[in-house]
Amino acid sequence: MAKDITLLWGSGSPPCWRIMIALEEKNLQGYNQKLLSFEKGEHKSKEVMDINPRGQLPSFKCGDKIINESCGVCFFLESKYKSQGTKLIPDCDAEQALMFQRVFEVNTFGDKMGNVIYYNWKVPEGERHDSAIKRNKEALTAEVKLWEGYLQKTSGGFLAGKNFSLADVIVFPAIAYLYRFGLSEERYPKLTEYYKNLMNRPSIKATWPPTWKETPGQDILKDI
Known about the structure:
Layout: E1 5-10, H1 14-25, E2 32-36, H2 46-49, E3 59-62, E4 65-66, H3 70-80, H4 93-117, H5 119-122, H6 130-153, H7 166-180, H8 189-199, H9 202-206, H10 210-214
Parallel strand pairs: 1-2
Antiparallel strand pairs: 1-3, 3-4
Domain GST C-terminal: 92-217
Organism: Haplochromis burtoni
Domain GST N-terminal: 3-85
């Protein structure tokens, strides 16, 4: 089954990482994969463009079926291989509802994070403003506090309750990204506890970004 799957990915990318976690959880090791370099522009190569005309990673195929949106891939894998590996959509209505809610909040989370981390990369030097930087940081701070609050209210250690689910598969890489860029562990104790507990989960440990093992993080988010 795994031989039908192809994943082109980039190290450290939360969208790529969540697919790799899902593949591990569904016992689909041994799939075809290729690590590409964002720095070298390999995500714009013909190999990628043939699968993903947006020239982005991840690029994913299962047989002749192409899905390049990472959340869509995770749902596809759970649907197609629901009888094997970890059950990633809870049976309990309450947990399932919370899982869907958290999954579809991840794009807002990611946008606010990117507006801070990549501000200088996205905004030309002559168009940068201290007021915009301040607004972006305030928006991200409010967002992180929201997720800290979610974890304070949720018992069981996972985002949707007592079971590891697609909410964790999809959101954990974004939370790990915060810490990679210097989020304070002391300021957000529940988020830090969640992050440290899941770091050692086999699927996450097996897919930890190789570039993160080789290079130090940054402190861009130390004041968040």
